[in-house]
Amino acid sequence: MLLDTGIGIATVYRAVKKAVADGVLSRVELPNSAARFEPAELPHHHHFACGSCNKVYDIHGCPLGIDGLVPDGFQMDGHEIVLHGTCVDCVEQSA
Ligand SMILES: [Zn+2]
Ligand SMILES: [Zn+2]
User: Fold this and answer.
1) What is the DSSP string of 12-45?
2) Which among 10, 37, 77, 91 has the fewest CB atoms less than 10 Å away?
3) CA of 51: how far to CAs of 7, 28, 36, in Å?
4) Nearest ligand for residue 45 CA
5) End-to-end CA distance of the chain
6) Model confidence at 2: pLDDT above 60
7) What is the CATH number of the domain that holds 76?
8) Which residues neighbour ligand 1 (ion) by CB within 5 Å?
């Protein structure tokens, strides 16, 4: 996303909000982190947040059995899973 073309950040923010509303982007919810967005067309996946470099990695696959956590009578529309830890780059740097 180009930010040096004279477009104000508010304009960019509005564009991002519209893209989310239009289903083009989806918001990645990460605790203690600025909002992140990714293309909504990505297949279902989850994230690994490195506490060392603050990068967020896509992880593929989804644990089975999440449906079983939903209380009786509740309807689940989706879920987010964020793993927290240290990425391989940071593990190697600290080795
Ligand atoms: Zn890292
Ligand atoms: Zn999942």
Assistant:
1) HHHHHHHHHHTTSEEEE--TTS--EEEETTSPSE
2) 77
3) 32, 16, 16
4) 2
5) 35
6) no
7) 3.30.1490.190
8) 50, 52-53, 87, 90
Write out the H or E segment, with its range, that includes residue 14.
Answer: helix 9-21
The per-type count for the chain, helices as H runs and strands as E runs, is: 2, 5
Domain containing 70: what range? 43-95
pTM to 2 decimal places: 0.71
Total of domains in the chain: 2
Q: Do 6 and 33 share a domain, yes or no? A: yes
Do 87 and 50 meet the contact criterion of CB atoms below 8 Å apart? yes
In this prediction, residue 5 carries a pLDDT of 63
Q: Are residues 34 and 55 in the same domain?
A: no
pLDDT at residue 56, rounded to an integer: 92
Q: 89: CA distance to ligand 2 center in Å?
A: 25
Tokens 């990714």, located at residue: 38
